[in-house]
Amino acid sequence: MKKDALAGHLGIKLLEVKSGYAKATVKITKQLLNGAGVTHGGTIFSLADVVLAAASNSHGPLALALDVNIHFLKTTKEGAILTATATEDNLTRKTGLYRMEVKDDRDTLIAIAEGLVYRMDN
């Protein structure tokens, strides 16, 4: 995850990684807003994608996303601190399925996402 240049550029900080689980956070700055003045959907998606990557790669073999879908539930604004978690729902030799939740600093659910990864051979 130290090689994830986009996460670093956005200010995403990985807080915790354990087998099949990851947690990360980002503080919403002016640069992370869209034209409507709320947190850009790409920012929220990127945060969810970072925890997906960390959780799915926690087992060792390289895992790459096959499909990720997200549901945006609430908006946030500059100054908000968003925290995302990824939890493993299913793991096979070749795939993994993960549920991601993004919450704000008031513990309000901002987005829910699901990611399917392909686990590469070593």
UniProtKB/TrEMBL annotation:
Coiled-coil zones: none
Short name of any one Pfam family annotated for the protein: 4HBT
Domain of life: Bacteria
Record-linked InterPro entries: Acyl-CoA_thioesterase_PaaI (IPR052723), HotDog_dom_sf (IPR029069), PAAI_dom (IPR003736), Thioestr_dom (IPR006683)
Keywords tagged on the record: Hydrolase
Thioesterase domain boundaries: 37-110
Higher taxonomy: Bacteria, Bacillati, Bacillota, Clostridia, Eubacteriales
A single MF term (Gene Ontology): acyl-CoA hydrolase activity
Organism name: Desulfoscipio gibsoniae DSM 7213
Protein name as it appears in the record: Thioesterase domain-containing protein
